[in-house]
Amino acid sequence: MSTLDPASESSGITADLFATPERKELRATVRKFTEREVVPHLDDWERAGELPRDLHRAAAKVGLLGIGFAEEVGGSGGDLLDSVVMTEEIIQAGGSSGLVAGLFTHGIALPHIVDAGDPGLVDRFVRPTLAGDLIGALAITEPDGGSDVAALRTTAVRDGDDYVVNGTKTFITSGARADFVTTAVRTGGPGYGGVSLLVVDRGIEVVRRLEKMGWHCSDTAELSFVDTRVPAANLVGPENGGFALVMRQFQVERITMAVEAYATAQRCLDLTLAYVRTRETFGKPLVKRQLVSHKLVEMAQRTELARTYTREVAAMIADGRECVAQVCFAKNAAVAACDFVVDEAVQLHGGFGYLRDAEVERHYRDARILGIGGGTTEVMAELAARRLGYTS
After folding, report:
1. For the chain, which has fewer Cβ within 10 Å, the N-terminal or C-terminal residue?
2. pLDDT at 370
């Protein structure tokens, strides 16, 4: 378990929310699943470059895929805080942020569909995905667009009962394995007012698999749509109403990445503490050296501060409160804490920490994407500045 048990010892007004009997039971279930189904195979999946479909079915069988989705749409119930607990424990039990990204991509592919409330789309895409039978992805980013959703160029032109889609999407998590892609397209004029969401489940061309610094077990692809015909019934929400749907879900995606960041930091702290207690140099364990023990304190301090604040903001989101700036703070602070901790973890592991055999080496590589995905650190700072009126 963690050196500082985040389920029981964290401070903050929301600490008790994460230590209810139900969430302790969920944490135990997640840990057991991760230790049994993930840890023995993760290195192989890293080298294979993707996760097996059977893992999705196994996660669905114990109810993990459905956490945070209502039972009415095929989910397991629970809310954002339950998802936070699950994400924390997967990583702290020996999983990784890359594993979370690949196994739970539906967490960004399905919420827009659920939010729109079309029973037909829910039956065709949401239920089978939460059952582990389908894999979904979200396609927003384009080669020259980055985080600027309002500037996307992929078009969907209405032609009878279909839309004809043309364009390219890149950096698509689970794109190589996806059975369907919730895709941001331009159905109207320029700007955010012309953006729609369309579920594309045919004619998806994987242009190439993208090789990455980290998240090796999570496949990432560049996708192309060339005169791809998609039934108009696959439109998510109203035509030209996709921008609002995307923005509402960005909050959850960003806070989830903050959780991944501090959970990764906690795992690296745990691994490092175990290592320095057993690694001896010049006749005594590393942990006996003041320089090392003080580094451990700094690692623990930054991790705990990030966890406490991020949990507070997650509770605000779950409560329906407006907290855009606070989400930006949480993501940037948690990423900064993670960057510091993974670097110190590799350093304190010495030469072993540089080897693929060391778990901290994987976390070091995986952590780098957390300040990029879901909105870069710079974008988060700019968004917070705008919300706080600091740009006028």
Report:
1. C
2. 98
